[in-house]
Amino acid sequence: MKFLFKCLPVFLLGVILFVPSALADNSVKRVGGNTRYDTAVLAAKQSWKEAKTVIIVGGSAYPDGIAAAPLAYQKNIPLLYTNKHNLSAGTKKGLIDLKTKNVIIVGGTPAVSKNTENQIKKMGISVKRLAGSSRYATAAKVANEMGRSTTALVVNGFVNADGLASISYAASKKYPILFTNDSTLNGSTANAIKNLGIKNTIVIGGTKSISNALYNKLPNPSRVSAKNRYDLSMKLAKKANLGTSYTYITNGFKEADSIVGGVLGVKQGRAHLLTNGNNLSKETRTYIGDKNMKSFTVIGKASSLSDNVASQLKNPVVGKTVFIDPGHGDQDSGATGYGLLEKNVNLDIGKRLNSKLYSAGALPVMSRTGDTFDSLEERVKKGAKAKADIFISVHANANDNNSANGTETYYDKTYQSANSLKLAQNIQPQMVSALGTRDRGVKTAGFYVIKYSQMPSVLLETGFVTSPIDSNILKQSAKKDRLATGISKGVSSYFK
Questions:
Q1: Which one, out of 75, 151, 157, 241, has a CA that is 20 to 30 A from the CA of 360?
Q2: Widest distance between CA atoms in the chain
Q3: Mapping DSSP to helix (H, G, I), strand (E, B) and coil, where does residue 327 land?
Q4: Neighbouring residues of 171: CB distance < 8 A, sequence distance ≥ 6
């Protein structure tokens, strides 16, 4: 790295030893059975040792489950599923374990057959059915069963994503969920609004879900919309204002798990968020980071919500915004040696680090992703604009003496001195281990980007491009990939 360009006067205060963190990862628990029926029973048992009354809906009748969820919360009872034609074995055992005496079936016989109802009755359990001729009518029946509310949520009954995201909010406020289609107010819903004395309606979803023409026909309407189901669940979680010290996470495309997750979350006064089943969605990460969430329960087995998502939730870096600044760029090549341009080395490592951190659950932001140039002041401003939790500047070193070699990490004492030191101490040994380079330690220096960035900040000197030893290492893709993995691990350790 070009010495005069990169810094204010440098003050070397010696090497600081790394002290490994003894703190723990985030807490992640999984509640998942072999089937949706088993998962619902396991979820119920998280909050109910006994349940004299239980709601049962058809295992694929998701609109019925969405409509029933606020009723389950209001009556303080769990929600279970069954197969259409026969009472599912897992659900039958659940009713026995919960010592259930009364069942409310939500949905008509196309969802839960008369035969299934009779099987429940043969267990000595009384049965009441709330059902209409359509999903609209069934939702209206459920709303009528709830206590009076002057506000109702209106959701497109054919857009399950909107309904799933609504559950915790609707239930926590004791608002019924009523259904419509995208452009026409169904007669059952219109009658429910009139008969229940609904004076305010909250429309869930954008204009593709419920048109403006229909919206304007509703009493005193307001709308909550979002760019996707994950964003919608985040917005509604904020409105519900449930606790976030412990949070429920479900796959936003697995309706059965998400319905019971919403019921369980609101029962315990805890937020419920939707995510992608294979990779934690950006919107969910953002809310986790904003609320500094540390404890989670995922609903569903690994085929529903992957072990990768569970690992991301467990990683202390989840939801953290990490600003990655690959030094130099464009006309400023930085240090040169043995066929290497520092700007290219920095960008390659920065991109790999970006990928590793995103895979770990973080929200990385890069100052540059191509061969472009920003001034030092612009880099600092970009980090501040990103509201980064930490700032990492990636560089390679240079010296007139080609025997100089090794890896070192710098921090500055102007802002966040203790945390910057901690960050440096966590990253430095990981870099040395990954590259097999000489350990030059952790040092202080007034490099501009770490002196003026107000979040914990470090500048990494990965190796000397002017060294035949280090330059050979920095030419190897496998080594740079290991380095990025090591830096990512160091960042995760810092957040423990």
A1: 241
A2: 89
A3: coil
A4: 69, 70, 72, 73, 74, 262, 263, 266
Task: Report the alpha-carbon distance of residue 15 to residue 479 in Å, rounded.
Answer: 25
> At what angle are helices 62-75 and 135-145 packed, to 10 degrees?
0
Q: Report the alpha-carbon angle 254-256-259, nearest 5.
A: 105
- 126-130, strands of its sheet edge to edge: 79-82, 53-58, 102-106, 126-130
Of 330, 451, 482, nearest to 8 (Cα)? Answer: 451
What gap in Å lies between CA 486 and CA 480, rounded to an integer? 10
Q: What is the DSSP letter of 369?
A: S
145 is catalytic: no
* 277 contacts: CB under 8 Å, gap ≥ 6: 251, 252, 253, 254, 304, 305, 306, 309
Give burial (CB, 10 Å; 0-12/13-18/19+) of 74. middle
How many angstroms separate the CA atoms of 203 and 275, rounded?
22
Dist. CA 109–CA 24, nearest whole Å: 50
Contacts of 10 (CB under 8 A, 6+ apart): 3, 445, 446, 447
Give me the catalytic one of 255, 283, 408, 461.
461
- Please tell me what DSSP assigns to residue 474: H
User: Per-residue pLDDT averaged across 104-109, rounded?
Assistant: 98
Each residue's pLDDT tens digit, 322-364: 999 999 999 999 999 999 999 999 999 999 999 999 999 999 9
pTM: 0.91
Question: What is the token pair recorded at 248?
Answer: 């429920």
Structure tokens at 161: 């994503």
pLDDT of 288 over the 70 cut? yes
- The domains of the chain are located at 3-25+319-494, 27-314
CATH numeric code, 3-25+319-494? 3.40.630.40
Rounded to whole angstroms, the Cα distance separating 305 from 309 reads: 7
**Contact status, residue 289 vs residue 361, Cβ threshold 8 Å:** no
> Looking up tokens 């990768």, which residue turns up?
308
What is the amino acid identity at position 482? R
Q: Give yes or no for a contact between 229 and 165, defined as CB atoms under 8 angstroms apart.
A: yes
Contact assessment for residue 50 and residue 95, using Cβ atoms and an 8 Å cutoff = no
